[in-house]
Amino acid sequence: MLLEVCVGKIHRATVTQADLNYVGSITIDEKLAAAAGMKQFQKVTITNLRNGVLWYTYVMFGAPDSGTICLNGPPAHHFEKGDLVIILAYAQVTPEELESISPTLVFVDGNNKITEIKKHPAVSN
């Protein structure tokens, strides 16, 4: 059995662009994505803090140090420049692998520059 788990998070990033005429995906500054452990084409969800919309898509890399967070294709109807979003990356792991998962949390400023990187602590029951 495989479990789908969060392995990386970019917290409260600012949308820099929404491009309805692009094929799809989210374009994320390559350096920012890498800091969160996100891989190109990896499944992510994006939650819009303004309107509560949750969207599933995949990552495309943007220019490093550009601060780019661009929602492409249909999500451009639900995400606007200036919106704050939370981006979560997922992976499928075995129950045994789950024991060693420690998601990376990346915090950014209003220009999507990294201010802090933390490992999510395991919570025991």
Question: How would you describe this structure in keywords?
Answer:
125 residues, mainly beta, Barwin-like endoglucanases, 9 strands, globular
Explained architecture:
The protein has helices spanning 30-35, 95-98; strands at residues 3-14, 17-19, 26-29, 43-48, 54-62, 69-72, 84-93, 104-108, 114-119. β4 (43-48) and β5 form a beta hairpin. It contains two helices and nine strands; from the N terminus they run βββαββββαββ. The protein has 125 residues and is mainly beta. 8% of the residues lie in helices and 47% in strands. It has a single domain, classed as Beta Barrel (Barwin-like endoglucanases). It starts with a strand and ends in a 6-residue tail after the last strand. A nine-stranded mixed β-sheet has the order 2-6-3-5-4-7-1-8-9.
